[in-house]
Design goal:
209 residues; TIM Barrel; alpha/beta; 5 helices; globular; two-stranded antiparallel sheet
Length: 209
Amino acid sequence: MSAELQIKVCGMRDPHNLEEVCSLAPEYVGFIFFERSKRFLGSAPDPALFTIPGPGIRKVGVFVDEELKRVRKAVDSYGLDMVQLHGNESVAYCRSLSGEAVQVIKALDPASSPMDPDSWEGAADLLLFDSAGTGSGGTGRKFDWTLLENRALPVPFLLSGGIGPEDAALVRALELKGFMGVDVNSRFERSPGLKDLISLKKFITEIRK
């Protein structure tokens, strides 16, 4: 199972650092369009940034309770392959985007979000489980992964929240139905938006053993 796990590296915004990260061939790279994030791209990011990953790496735009028209505009303007919805977006909101030229990742807190298998079927291509805080977005802290055991989930999912360089063996040992990969961010940074290539490369190598 571990050989099939996918890697998403989120919070990219520096062109040179993005090139370095893409040289490690993650399956996804994430760009944050939420202005209250420390890794916010800015109101008018350079379109050239989004050409760096190339066709083999999927570009994910991260949004939090954004107007649909602005999400669609970002998808068109920057050639996003996927959108990650990290707020309180409804099933109907997600379904309105699903089936268009972009795929949908819906972030949920497994401790508080509804887990009805029928709720997200046809509305999201992937789920992303993260620990929610008092504000918007993730907390960078782990949640109890056993909450996902014996769950009848509607679509495959990524695991997020406080995953760091030391967690590769734990991730590889997980046996969770529908578990597709991990989303990493703050625990692999030298500063917000700037990833540490040494620790990231070691982690990816270990995951892909």
